[in-house]
């Protein structure tokens, strides 16, 4: 009986130690997201998304239709920010960092991103991402006719069966 109690107490200590380690790891993951300014990246992403959404307004939109479209674009952006904003998903992202990296790796990443080179990477990342997106969009546009040809061929073959 005494052995069972001792094992139970030992298990509690081990479990509470694991929780403390998890808390420390989560704190490191949060610090990393702070250093990376992930919250600001979310805001920038939503701003860019809003600009992209505005570009989808058809050119032949009448003056009467434009305020209606803008109203719904604003509703969509509010919904996206509410459902996908940092306040809603931030803790999940922090958990992902904590699950993906060890405590040591998190600390090394924090140290790197505090360095001069790490700060340069953080500052240049939006520019790199934008250039990458532009490159991918260009390649997709160039590939579009080939994709359409493959789909046309598939539809022709499907029509035979």
Highlighted features:
161 residues, 6 helices
In words, what does this structure look like?
By secondary structure, the protein is mostly helical. The protein is extended, with a radius of gyration of 25 Å. 5% of the residues are buried. Helix content is 89%, strand content 0%. The longest helix is centred in the last third of the chain and has 45 residues. α2 runs antiparallel to α3, α3 packs across α4 and α5 crosses α6.
Topology of helices and strands:
Layout (H helix, E strand, L loop, with lengths): L1 H34 L2 H17 L10 H20 L1 H15 L2 H12 L1 H45 L1
Entry summary:
This protein is mainly α.
Topology as a string of helices (H) and strands (E):
HHHHHH
What is the share of helical residues? over 70%
Integer average pLDDT: 84
Task: Briefly note the structural class of the backbone.
Answer: mainly alpha
Number of helices: 6
Tell me the total number of β-strands: 0
What is the terminal separation in angstroms? 75 Å
Poorly predicted regions? 1-6, 8-21
The gyration radius over C-alpha positions equals 25 Å
Protein name: DUF2059 domain-containing protein
InterPro entries: DUF2059 (IPR018637)
Keywords: Signal
